[in-house]
Amino acid sequence: ISGYSLVVQARDSGTPPLSSSVTVNVDISDVNDNSPVFTPANYTAVIQENKPVGTSILQLVVTDKDSFHNGPPFTFTILTGNEEEEFTLDPHGVLRSAVIFKHMVSTEYVLCVQAKDSGKPQQVSHTYIQVRVIEESIHKPTAIPLEIFIVTMEDDFPGGVIGKIHATDQDVYDVLTYTLKSEQKSLFKVNSHDGKIIALGGLDNGKYILNVSVSDGRFQVPIDVVVHVEQLLQEMLQNTVTIRFENVSPEDFVGLHMHGFRRTLRNAVLSQKQDSLHIISIQPVAGSSQLDMLFAVQMHSGGFYKPAYLIQKLTNARRHLENVIRISAILEKNCSGLDCQEQHCEQSLSIDSHSLMTYSTARISFVCPRFYRNVRCMC
């Protein structure tokens, strides 16, 4: 407890008694009676041979239960094990290489490190660090090509995470880093540590090929990343049909079924090869394991097929579609729970272009806006 606040009253013995009060603040000053604590108590670390001077090996974590002026900043010192000055320890507790290590020269070092706090008198603690020198990387990283599909309203893409690169390396201790060529950084970014791809706002309609690479410090490997951006037209929303699937997650649909179902759906509903199928959004049905897929079909001439026509086509081809994935329902209007006949039901669809959903798998990522379906009786 760092302090107390007391209210003290003095009362005399007269009749009637008179009194007054005063507040007394008592501050408890800290004594430097706690030593710094390393977490964990001792460390193990590895460094690959032939890494450049200054390579980060380990970050020390130190805490102190005393108040701030008796705790950090800490002073770190290597007491033993660094007689040849192979290591440096900076003021932030980062252990770095001071030489280029060779596995054939030495495979292990043990350092005794001291941390000293800022109190008076100073308190100290010690930890031991075991550093193993391992052979340099012999395997190249491997990465899975990634294709990303983004659906957005016209000129209204807010940006965000659109996918993640999946890369591995057979060298156990390799740390992978990801880079994007500088000329594309005005539109996209790649997180150097985890491979997440971020699109900035305002992407135009079209196809983007990203020059991404992954490195283990020795080998650098290019990764095929293709981004397709499709901008929705307002007219699409008035001519949509919803297919509802049973027992499938959005990620499973995107990764396992979307490509095959899209091909089968095209064969089922397109009257001419020049017609275009547009998958507008996929979205889980709240409180169930079902999934809604919203789509529209654009004629070669530029207009859109009416939902009634598409539903007739879907109904005729339903058996072929279910060879790919089980369909729960085909919806144009969704008036369940409303006491009105089908012909008296009016449906409106709205898109929230600033609420994007990203369904990412190792090979395919699908980014689409959230949609809302509103129905009401006209009778």
Automatic annotation (TrEMBL):
Keywords for this protein: Calcium, Membrane, Repeat, Transmembrane, Transmembrane helix
Subcellular location: Membrane
Record keyword rRNA-binding present: no
PROSITE patterns assigned to the protein according to its UniProt record, in alphabetical order: CADHERIN_1, CADHERIN_2
GO cellular component: plasma membrane
Top-level taxon: Eukaryota
GO terms assigned for molecular function: calcium ion binding
Keyword Transmembrane: yes
A biological process term (GO) from this entry: homophilic cell adhesion via plasma membrane adhesion molecules
Domain Cadherin, first and last residues per copy: 4-38, 39-143, 154-245
PANTHER family reported for this sequence: FAT ATYPICAL CADHERIN-RELATED, PROTOCADHERIN-LIKE WING POLARITY PROTEIN STAN
Protein name: FAT3 protein
Species, as recorded: Orthonyx spaldingii (Chowchilla)
